[in-house]
Amino acid sequence: MSVEEGQIAVRHTVLNLLSVIKAELGDLDRFERVIKVNGYVNSAPDFDCQTAGSNGALDLLANTPIPQAEAVDIVHQVRQIGEKQ
């Protein structure tokens, strides 16, 4: 998966999360703010663009009327299955 494809996947995930929140709250106007964006990236050891995906999430959220409480972007690199430490 390319970085661009990963960003698209992250945007779709955020939109899905917003639809779940809207379904639960009845209206996104009741959603007060985003506090933290926490991302997990399954990538090869030499891949160094882990934050690109979560930046896509923050960019999407910044273009919504949902207030951002200076959202913190935390990204964790997850080892590939079978990869030795």
Question: What would you note in describing this structure?
Answer:
This protein is α+β, with helices and mostly antiparallel strands and 85 residues long. The chain has helices spanning 3-25, 50-62, and strands at 34-42, 68-78. The protein has one domain (3-78): RutC-like (60s Ribosomal Protein L30, Chain: A, 2-Layer Sandwich). Helix content is 42%, strand content 24%. The chain has a two-stranded parallel sheet. It is elongated, with a radius of gyration of 15 Å.
SSE run = HEHE
Question: How many domains would you count in the coordinates?
Answer: 1
Q: Considering DSSP H and I runs of 4 or more, what fraction of the residues is helical?
A: 40-55%
CA-CA gap between termini: 23 Å
CATH topology annotation: 60s Ribosomal Protein L30, Chain: A
Strand order of the largest sheet: 1-2
Strand element count:
2
Uncertain ranges: none
**Major pleated sheet:** 2 strands, parallel
CATH class: Alpha Beta
CATH superfamily: RutC-like
Overall mean confidence score, pLDDT = 77
3D shape: elongated
Indicate the structural class: alpha+beta
CATH architecture: 2-Layer Sandwich
Number of helices: 2
The Rg value, from CA coordinates, equals 15 Å
| Range of strand content | 15-25%
